Amino acid sequence: TCFFPSGKKALGHTPCSDDEYTACCDNNHVCMTNGLCVNVGSDQPYGFSRAACTDKSWGSSCPQECVEKEDGKAGCAILTFEAGGNATTYCCNAITSKNGSAACANDEDPFTITSGTAISGRAYLSNLVAKDSGNNNREVAIGAGVGVPLGVLFLTALGWALYERKKR
């Protein structure tokens, strides 16, 4: 069973590992090794989100991004706030304007996230099972066929976000 930080059951979510306490993602999202989810086929495709966790008390095995205040009642979109330099920073749910500058909603501070990779066999990728059979050109082709478009879409969205931000 998966829960949101508020303790409410997260229906339609799947644990991202067999561990007792682990992150969960919506069945239509991709589990990542950093505890976050990548949205696919939703209103905001290829964006990050913090979903749920199997630990109802939301301990250290659960993703700690966007669990405070209003963000903890359900899943939470994680939006790119600033990209470039040494690190990309993110905001929970929304970016607003404060004193003429961009700011995270609810006066929350921008944060960084750790790198992660997709977990096969879980949530959206539940029918995809990783094999230990060495090199397989078909698997490489499928991985490239899925990974390259996702990367292009992410970079396009990032470029658009930076363009929109500079217009302000």
Can you give keywords for this protein?
168 residues; alpha+beta; five-stranded antiparallel sheet; three-stranded antiparallel sheet; 10 strands; globular
Overview of the molecule:
- With 168 residues, the chain is of the alpha+beta class.
- The chain is 18% helix and 22% strand.
- The chain is built from one helix and ten strands; from the N terminus they run E-E-E-E-E-E-E-E-E-E-H.
- The strands form three sheets. It has a five-stranded antiparallel β-sheet with strand order 3-4-5-7-8, covered by helices on one side.
- It is globular.
- The termini are far apart.
- The mean pLDDT is 83.
Provide a short characterization of the protein structure:
With 168 residues, the protein is of the alpha+beta class. 18% of the residues lie in helices and 22% in strands.
Low-confidence stretches: none
The backbone outline, from C-alpha atoms, is globular
Strand order of the largest sheet: 3-4-5-7-8
Given the helix and strand composition, which structural class is it?
Answer: alpha+beta
The end-to-end distance, rounded to whole angstroms, is 44 Å
Largest sheet features: 5 strands, antiparallel
- How many runs of DSSP E, i.e. beta strands? 10
* Oligomeric state of this protein: single chain
Number of domains: 1
- Residues in β-strands, percent: 15-25%
Average pLDDT across residues?
83
